[in-house]
Amino acid sequence: MYSIQIKNKAINLRKSGESIYEIARVLNLKPTTVSNWCKNILLTKNLRNKISRQGKFKARAAMLVYTENLREQRLRNTKTNMQEGAKMLGKLSSRDILMIGIGLYWGEGYKYENSELGFTNSNPDMISFYIKWLTLFNVDKSNLIFRITINEVFKSHEKIVKKFWINKLKVRKSQFSATTFIKTGLKKADVSNLKNYHGILRVKVKKGRRLRDKIMGALQHINSCS
Q1: What is the pLDDT of residues 115-163, one digit of tens each?
Q2: Can you say whether residue 193 is alpha, beta or left, with left for phi > 0 and alpha for psi between -120 and 50 degrees?
Q3: What is the pTM of this model?
Q4: Which residues are registered as beta bridge partners of 118?
Q5: Which end of the chain is more exposed for a tag (fewer CB within 10 A), N or C?
Q6: Secondary structure class of 185 (helix, strand, coil)
Q7: What is the pLDDT of residue 54?
Q8: In the chain, which residues have pLDDT < 70?
Q9: Phi and psi dihedrals of 108, rounded to 5?
Q10: What is the three-class DSSP state of 92?
Q11: Residue 46's pLDDT is what?
């Protein structure tokens, strides 16, 4: 098991134009491990040329071209598959959106906690969708209360994480309750990943018990039909 610091060092070396084999040699890693970590990095033509020039053996240069072609093909395939997935759905009706939201609440919503209408997730897009979904029930953003839960190793960056959610959701700072910090076995934090770390966000609706009862009734109906 390699540390996140080693992985990030390998990724940064790759972005600077080092070959997979050279990175593996410097960091004492297997080339296959480095290749897996760096498979989503798109090299510019100049960086490819640099690696080719630095390569001591033509086989390595040939492998570079081969793996880059495979990666580019994989990315093209992924894009095509995603486009086809979007076409499968087409335009969503209000009922479609209603059912998606109920499904999300079934998985991530509060169902037993003091009859509160709450939803917890770490995915910003999922949180945004959920808040838009609440507008189907005439729930305004001003009636929402937020609580962030973050790893204690990121405690010094609490304001940054909170600012992200405020900007992402376009809500007020006053709507956030005290942040919850969780303890882990980590001794050090790799803060270089902070831009991708947003913690976990709970979204609670003020006086949402009536709506929660309706949602729970819908879930029971779905369950009875399954």
Answers
A1: 789 999 999 999 999 999 999 999 999 999 999 999 888 888 899 999 9
A2: alpha
A3: 0.64
A4: 204
A5: N
A6: coil
A7: 66
A8: 1, 51-62, 113, 185-194, 226
A9: -120, -5
A10: coil
A11: 77
Sheet holding 180-182, edge to edge: 118-121, 200-205, 144-151, 180-182
Contact, 151 vs 179, CB < 8 A? Answer: no
- Between the CA of residue 204 and those of 66, 84, 159, what are the distances in Å? 51, 35, 20
Pull the structure tokens for residue 68: 């880059």
Annotate 17-51 with three-state secondary structure. CCCHHHHHHHHCCCHHHHHHHCCCCCCCHHHHHHH
DSSP for 115-146, written as a single string: T--EEEES-HHHHHHHHHHHGGGT--GGGEEE
Query: Which sign, positive or negative, has the C-alpha torsion 13, 17, 20, 26?
Result: negative
pLDDT at residue 186, rounded to an integer? 54
Neighbours of 93 (CB within 10 A): 9
> How many residues are there in the chain?
226
